[in-house]
């Protein structure tokens, strides 16, 4: 992508509400849809005009399976390069794609209210998961999904796949696969929820940390200046939830390619944050599953959310969760 910096300011450095701000997004239908959702929310709340700048990430063009690439950062690095270059003002990511280590000079300016975090089954003939015949071929590119699904149905065949939602759903329509498993929120963003035959409850399969949530990222120095308006779409309770979930991932030294599920729920009436996490061997034969809760002084009590995630992860590590993660990575790296 080429272009000149657009900072939404006048020549004297004052905010220019008439100059459209540039939102960097991946080119996929899902990415542009969710970025437009964020842009429209900002405009509705602040009057700011937002333009989408489409950027191609390495994860969009490589044919390699994400587990071979390590998973972390392949969809976000190109956007971050544009942020550092100043050719976009801010970027929107799927939060589950973001590495847990912060990027130098950048900050998560907002985490909007989360969409449905659950996973969804899209199967032929309207079949439910329990009704799939032994040996049915289930497509998913996620080691987390494979591990948790294998724990429920070791008699099925799990097939690694790449591609956007339309491509994956097409493999079911063509008969190449019997079903695929995708994020329910993502299917909603591309208008394909009618393909869903079952939604997995967290008791069956914990979502990826941050699944269903979006992240608005910009430079640290501009957040307190001309981009302060990005905070208008921040949702403190969602931020607390995903901070707890991502802390589990960080403590386990894992990434989005690891078989780790985590799901936090904030209860506004009680101020209590409940966190569930699972680390499951890739064949589903072994798992460490735990849950914990903490009282938050407010939805913005990120220190308590971080401590909750840290304490739960350390409990799981003491019970062998880190070994399961290491073994999963070793399997991934074995030719």
TrEMBL record:
Residues modified to S-(dipyrrolylmethanemethyl)cysteine: 256
Enzyme class: transferase
InterPro entries tied to this protein: HemC (IPR000860), Porphobilin_deaminase_cofac_BS (IPR022419), Porphobilin_deaminase_N (IPR022417), Porphobilinogen_deaminase_C (IPR022418), Porphobilinogen_deaminase_C_sf (IPR036803)
Pathway, per record: Porphyrin-containing compound metabolism; protoporphyrin-IX biosynthesis; coproporphyrinogen-III from 5-aminolevulinate: step 2/4
Cofactor: dipyrromethane
Keyword tags: Porphyrin biosynthesis, Transferase
BP terms from Gene Ontology: protoporphyrinogen IX biosynthetic process
Co-factor binding details: Binds 1 dipyrromethane group covalently.
Domain annotation Porphobilinogen deaminase N-terminal: ranges: 22-221
Protein's name according to its UniProt entry: Porphobilinogen deaminase
Gene name in the database record: hemC
């Amino acid at each position: 992508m080429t272009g000149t910096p657009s900072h939404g300011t006048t020549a004297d450095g004052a905010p220019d509400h008439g100059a459209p701000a540039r939102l960097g997004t991946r080119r996929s239908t899902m990415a542009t849809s969710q970025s437009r959702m964020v842009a429209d929310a900002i405009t509705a709340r602040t009057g700011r005009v937002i333009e989408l700048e489409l950027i191609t990430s390495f994860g969009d063009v490589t044919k390699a399976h994400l587990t071979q690439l390590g998973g972390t950062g392949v969809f976000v690095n190109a956007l971050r390069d544009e942020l550092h270059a100043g050719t976009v003002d801010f970027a929107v990511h799927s939060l589950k794609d973001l590495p847990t280590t912060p990027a130098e000079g950048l900050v998560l300016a907002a985490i909007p209210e989360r969409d449905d975090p659950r996973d969804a089954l899209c199967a032929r003939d309207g079949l439910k998961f329990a009704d799939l015949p032994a040996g049915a071929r289930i497509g998913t590119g996620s080691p987390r999904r494979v591990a948790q699904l294998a724990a429920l149905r070791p008699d099925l065949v799990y097939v690694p796949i790449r591609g956007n939602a339309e491509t994956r759903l097409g493999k079911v329509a063509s008969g190449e696969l019997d079903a695929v498993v995708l994020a329910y929120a993502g299917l909603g963003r591309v208008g394909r929820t009618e393909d869903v035959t079952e939604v997995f409850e967290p008791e069956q399969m914990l979502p990826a940390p941050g699944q269903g949530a979006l992240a608005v990222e910009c430079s640290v120095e501009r957040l307190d200046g001309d981009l302060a308006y990005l905070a208008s779409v921040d949702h403190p309770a969602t931020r607390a939830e995903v901070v707890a979930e991502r802390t589990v991932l960080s403590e386990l030294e894992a990434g989005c390619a690891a078989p780790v599920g985590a799901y936090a729920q904030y209860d506004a009436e009680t101020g209590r944050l409940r966190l569930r996490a699972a680390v499951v061997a890739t064949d589903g034969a072994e798992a460490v599953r735990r849950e914990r809760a903490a009282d938050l002084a407010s939805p913005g009590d990120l220190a308590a959310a971080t401590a909750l995630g840290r304490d739960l992860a350390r409990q799981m590590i003491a019970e062998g969760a880190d070994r399961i993660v290491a073994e999963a990575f070793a399997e991934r790296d074995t030719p």
